[in-house]
Write a structure and sequence with these properties.
It is a single chain. The chain has 173 residues and is mostly helical. Helices cover 43% and strands 0% of the residues. The protein contains 9 helices and no strands. α1 runs antiparallel to α2. The longest helix has 11 residues. 1% of the residues are buried.
C-alpha cells in the first residue's frame, strides 16, 4: 500500500482503513491511524468542499413568494369609501364564513374607510367641552359655533310677540 504525500486526514486514505478492518489486519489499521494528524482541526469533517454560494434575494417580494404570503391588508383606501365592508357584512350575515375568509385572503379590504390622518369622528367632536370644540373649529377653519354668533334679541322678541314663532313654540312644547 503506497500513500503519496503527507498523510493528514482519513479522507486521503480512501478505503484503506475499511479494507484493514474487513481483512482483520489490525497492525496495518493501527499504523494507518498513527500516521494521521493528531490535530482535531485537520479532520476531514472540518475541511468540506466549498461550493459557490449565490447571494440570496431577501427582498420583501422574494420572501412573500417563498413563504406564499398573500397581499398586504391596506390601512385605508386611496379615496374615501363609506361602503367598505358592506359585502363582507352580507357574507357574514348569511353564514358564508369560508367564502368571507377566502375573499379576505385574496383581496383584503382596508381597515378604515378614510385615509385622512387629521379626521376626527363626529362622536368625538360632539363630546368635547365647548372651549375645545371652539378651538377645533377655528383650527380647521370651519364656521364658528352658534354660541359665537351675535343674537339680535329685540328682533327675536318681536317675532315671538307677533306670532310667527308662537306656532313653533307650541309644537315643541
Amino acid at each position: 500500500m503506497q500513500i503519496d504525500g503527507i498523510l493528514i486526514s482519513e479522507s486521503q486514505l480512501g478505503s484503506a482503513l475499511n479494507v484493514c478492518v474487513h481483512e482483520t489486519r489490525s497492525a496495518d489499521f493501527a499504523m494507518l491511524l498513527s500516521m494521521l494528524s493528531t490535530d482535531a482541526l485537520d479532520f476531514s469533517q472540518f475541511h468540506l468542499p466549498k461550493s459557490e454560494q449565490s447571494e440570496k434575494d431577501s427582498s420583501e417580494a422574494a420572501l412573500k413568494r417563498q413563504f406564499e404570503i398573500g397581499p398586504q391588508k391596506p390601512l385605508a383606501p386611496e379615496q374615501y369609501n363609506m361602503l367598505i365592508g358592506q359585502h363582507n357584512a352580507q357574507l357574514i350575515a348569511s353564514g358564508a364564513m369560508t367564502t368571507f375568509r377566502l375573499k379576505e385572503n385574496l383581496h383584503p379590504e382596508p381597515l378604515a374607510a378614510r385615509n385622512d390622518k387629521k379626521h376626527i369622528p363626529l362622536e368625538v367632536v360632539e363630546n368635547l367641552e365647548p372651549a375645545a370644540k371652539n378651538r377645533l373649529a377655528k383650527s380647521l377653519g370651519k364656521l364658528t359655533l352658534v354660541a359665537d354668533k351675535q343674537l339680535d334679541a329685540a328682533a327675536f322678541y318681536d317675532q315671538v310677540a307677533v306670532g310667527g314663532m308662537q306656532e313653533m313654540l307650541r309644537t315643541s312644547a
